[in-house]
Amino acid sequence: GFYVSDITSLVELQGNTSKAVSNVTFENLNFAYTSVESFYINAGFNMQSGNFLQKASISLAFATSCSVRSCIIRNTGGYGVWSNMETRNITIASNVLTDLGAG
What phi and psi, each to the nearest 5 degrees, are found at residue 57? Predict the structure, then answer.
């Protein structure tokens, strides 16, 4: 048998403009097996670059003082880690990222 994942993101830390997510650390964890965003495949996107993808195994938005350390992130359909929308003081260090769909 086989397993097909339809999950495009494993962790989404999402604050807002009035209250950021803060002081969250992921350390010595494995993150694996996410799917590519099927919309793009179904819409006929056939590019070598994954720059049109927007999902990641770990996503941070409106976050501060968070870190991803010594983790393994592998076999993703999108990005490994994505940080945007007023994130500050984010540390991504000593991780192994392999077989990523986008980067």
Answer: -60, -40
Residues 6+ apart with CB under 8 A from 5: 33, 34, 35, 77
Terminal-to-terminal C-alpha distance of the chain = 29
56 strand-pairing partners: 79
Helix, coil or strand: residue 39: helix
| Whether 67 contacts 25, CB under 8 Å | yes
- Looking at residue 57, its pLDDT comes to 92
Nearest to 96 by CA among 75, 82, 77: 75
Q: What is the pLDDT of residues 7-58, one digit of tens each?
A: 888 999 999 999 999 999 999 999 998 887 766 566 666 655 566 677 889 9
Taking the C-alpha atoms of residue 97 and residue 6, their distance in angstroms, rounded to an integer, is 20
pLDDT at 8: 85
Query: Distance between CA 97 and CA 103 in Å, rounded?
Result: 9
